[in-house]
Amino acid sequence: xxxxxxxxxxxxxxxxxxxxxxxxxxxxxxxxxxxxxxxxxxxxxxxxxxxxxxxxxxxxxxxxxxxxxxxxxxxxxxxxxxxxxxxxxxxxxxxxxxxxxxxxxxxxxxxxxxxxxxxxxxxxxxxxxxxxxxxxxxxxxxxxxxxxxxxxxxxxxxxxxxxxxxxxxxxxxxxxxxxxxxxxxxxxxxxxxxxxxxxxxxxxxxxxxxxxxxxxxxxxxxxxxxxxxxxxxxxxxxxxxxxxxxxxxxxxxxxxxxxxxxxxxxxxxxxxxxxxxxxxxxxxxxxxxxxxxxxxxxxxxxxxxxxxxxxxxxxxxxxxxxxxxxxxxxxxxxxxxxxxxxxxxxxxxxxxxxxxxxxxxxxxxxxxxxxxxxxxxxxxxxxxxxxxxxxxxxxxxxxxxxxxxxxxxxxxxxxxxxxxxxxxxxxxxxxxxxxxxxxxxxxxxxxxxxxxxxxxxxxxxxxxxxxxxxxxxxxxxxxxxxxxxxxxxxxxx
Length: 493
Ligand SMILES: *Cc1c(COP(=O)(O)O)cnc(C)c1O
Hints:
Elements: E1 3-6, E2 9-15, H1 16-22, E3 31-32, H2 43-47, H3 51-62, H4 68-78, E4 91-94, E5 97-101, H5 111-115, H6 118-126, E6 132-138, H7 142-151, E7 157-164, H8 170-177, E8 184-189, H9 193-205, H10 207-215, E9 218-221, H11 228-247, E10 257-262, H12 267-277, E11 282-289, H13 294-301, E12 303-305, H14 326-333, H15 338-351, E13 353-355, H16 358-365, E14 368-372, H17 375-389, H18 395-406, E15 413-418, H19 426-432, H20 442-453, H21 459-462, E16 473-475, H22 480-492
Parallel strand pairs: 5-15, 6-7, 6-9, 7-8, 8-16, 10-11, 10-15, 11-14
Antiparallel strand pairs: 1-2, 1-3, 4-5, 12-13
Helix pairs in contact: 1-6, 3-4, 3-11, 11-12, 17-18, 17-19, 19-20
The structure holds pyridoxal-5'-phosphate (PLP).
């Protein structure tokens, strides 16, 4: 059985099912298991099996209180026909490097890999007669739709999403307001993303609301990227992409590879570190940041300092100043020093800055490299990758590609993670290719991008044209709690 405890204290252990249902530990830390790395996966096995089999193997290793049968059911439900390729996360050539395409799911962003799986894992964990769970989330664009799609139609669960009115792209808004399912709710908020997030935090802290819902057998939960149930599924594609390179005879089993990861909350690249601890031959993990380069500075200096300006960039899913999942790396790199992690996180909360001891930084730097790309470099990379390699990439992927190109080649095969379809960010991709997009809506940009490049928009996005708007609620920030309560009443009664 895998037992999980907080990164900040070892006193209370829970099973992985409990960790997945709770999300965050009661002391504010993240759930970790000291068994990470005690089981190493056989490369021979991984190289001879499908994505689905590898996903079940990885999950069975990290979440060992789930039965093999339960996990096979979860994997089949999460990675079925809603993906546009049975490979799930295919690897394709990118010049002399490789592109790991993580955007073939129902919402065309890498969040699908985790958010198609999390609801399945939660569903098994809550059991047939458990409390009903309402997921509540604020979104600046990508996460909301991925959560809606993942939780839609799952028994005993519902999902409510708030987005800032007028502040998400046309395509992102349409993705959310056309969402089908009797257990979903979507509401625009008159305010910013921070207003949405602030209000959602207040909803979670509202004891009176929690009691009223509890009387009806309902609890609120989040689908936050610190949940073990989001982290674990992401480890699979590190192993599977390695297997694909072996099958292409680009590497032999045992050869080391390097991954470059466009990073925001540090969940994606941390999954690569988990894969390394589980036996994947990883030479280096390169953390690529946009102009919000707090991680580049941290990896260079050992000082994490969030006291800086926030930049709104063309890779918005990486516009983050506090990379929550970094706390797990600090735990493992310090050999499980809860006291250290707890004091660093205390510094972050009180002063906005912490300094990691040099011995821990040495361990981190032995695996992690870093680099940054501002918007100008991102645009230039989109243009050059298209012109020179005939590969169309989105702005998040372009950040990673720029950083990979700037990193001296260490002789390993190198894999650049691609986290979104370029068609999710049509306007910015088009303008990077030198087109004028003033006054064009999302679909006009989509048409223009198809015409210019001869590529085809994914049907998940072009099909939105025919979608019916099912959610037109708009509320003021102070009404967010009331909206959640009425959504619970509608979904569960
Ligand atoms: C969320 C997201 C990222 C960042 O991933 P983290 O796990 O938060 O580091 C990068 N690209 C896209 C498109 C995303 O949606």
